[in-house]
Amino acid sequence: MEDVTASFDLDDDFYANTFTEEDQAAFEAEPESPRKFLIAWAAALVLGPLGTHRYYLGLIPTAVTKSLLFGCAAVCVALGYVNASLVFMGVVTAWTIVDLFLLLSGTMRDRQEQRLTGFRRYAGPCAAITVMVLVGFLITALVVGTSSGVTGG
Q1: Count of C-beta atoms within a 10 Å radius of residue 84
Q2: What number of other Cβ atoms are within 10 A of residue 118's Cβ?
Q3: Residue 32 β-bridge partners
Q4: Any transmembrane segments, and where (predicted)?
Q5: Residues 101-135: pLDDT tens digits?
Q6: Residue 55: helix, strand or coil by DSSP?
Q7: The model scores a pTM over 0.85
Q8: For 31, which DSSP code?
Q9: Which burial class, exposed, middle or buried, applies to 82 when counting CB atoms under 10 A from its CB (0-12, 13-18, 19+)?
Q10: How far apart are the C-alpha atoms of 101 and 68, rounded to whole Å?
């Protein structure tokens, strides 16, 4: 049997997609936004379905669209159109999760396409908190969903 690990170069194979020193220098030379990463992330995590983080970053057209979708979901709930509200909330929730990933990866920037201040310092801890919150929501949804099916409620 051939030893596969003998021909496996850890440096080249595992770290092929990491930043080079030139990439790091280019990143550091980019202008920083006056907008704070931590504020945008917290707004996305807590009030993401309303689009508050997009308003904060100056992304007004998409923020208004997201707010309108959330408003449509609320109106559908008030009128008793539960299935329509679930569709609207599903879109808004998926969009919020994507926005969180874009923020945490550094891809989402402000209106001037500048990177957010504090991204390098806070992205790691914020990513860990985001994962814990999303897993907590998932577990809660599973518990509520299975318990309502068992109790008939």
Answers
A1: 15
A2: 18
A3: 115
A4: 37-56, 68-101, 122-144
A5: 999 998 999 999 999 999 889 999 999 999 999 99
A6: helix
A7: no
A8: P
A9: exposed
A10: 22
